[in-house]
Structure formats: structure tokens, C-alpha cells
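Lab notebook page, bench 4
Experiment: in silico fold of construct C2
Operator: M.H.
Input chain length: 186 residues
Purpose: comparison with the prior construct
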Amino acid sequence: MGGGYEEYIDVPSFVDYFILLEFSYNTDGVFRRSNFIYKKAGGLLYMASPWDYDYAFGNFSLDTYSYDDWISLGNTKTDNWNEYIKDNWMTYLLKDDAFCEQLKERWNEVGEALYSKAMSTIEELEITVAASAAENFAVWDDILGTQIQYQSSKTGALTTWEEHIEYLKSFIEKRYKWMDKTINAM
């Protein structure tokens, strides 16, 4: 049995949200902003409408660059940046064995497919937008190799579009492997 929260939240929607949030290491999605929780009349609270991924996939200045932690729980760089990260919905839910069991079950159902879809989508879109990317960087040639606003210094240092694609693929592969190992050890 869980911790009593099941009366109030749609647990599967929180599990799915956690998987997507963590797979992308989305710093904006850790209940500090860019989160939407809905409730239909007489229903449970449920997570919906994931969006705002500009500080995800290894592209935020306060990332630790190791990506072997749960961003939902914060990291050494975000701890002083935002109090909400220290104590949020996920810090509570991850302490519950029933939630972790549902997370593990769902991950083993969708994790590999999520990884495969992410990688194939990158490869497909790389071809689809190649001409547009070339035109974009012909006009905005000074944007590559430049860290902008809260962009990570790692992604800001990349000097070609191809390096950005390889960085994203590498990020996704490493993150998937870490999550698969960590979730299955729960």
C-alpha cells in the first residue's frame, strides 16, 4: 500500500511525468515552473501537458554534467538556486515503495521504446532539417560556440550543428543507460 496520496493523485500520470522529466533531465519541469497539474470535477489530480524543454537534455548552466542523479531531487548546483527542488511531489513519491514499483514496471514497459524513438527521431529530423540548418547558421554564424543566457557551457562551446546532434545523441544514450540501471535497482 502507498502513502495515502493515491486518494488524491492519478499515480500513473505522475509515473509517466517522472519518466519523461527525468529522461530529458528537464530542470524546468521539477515543480519550480512549467508544470501543470489538472483536476476534473470529482477526479484526481493528474500531470498533463509536458512542455518547456529549453533547459533539458543537458542544456542548462546549473547542470552537473554527470547526469547520474534525479533532477527532480536537485543536484549540488541547483540546491542553492531553488528551494522548490529540495522538497516537491517527487521527493515524497520516490520514498514510497508502491510508487517505485509502479515506476519500475512502467519503465520496463516504455523505457526502451522511448529511447529508440528519441534516437530515430533525431536521425530522421537531422535529414529533414539539414538544408534549413545550413541556411540558419549561414545567417546566424556567430551563435555556434557561444553560450547564451542559461545555456550550459558544454552546449555553448559546440561549434557545429553536427556537434550539437552528436551531443544530444550521446546525452540520451547515457541518460537511458543510467535510468535503466537505477530504476531496475529500486
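Observations: The two ends are 16 Å apart (CA to CA). The beta strands are 37-39, 45-47.
Next step: discuss at group meeting.
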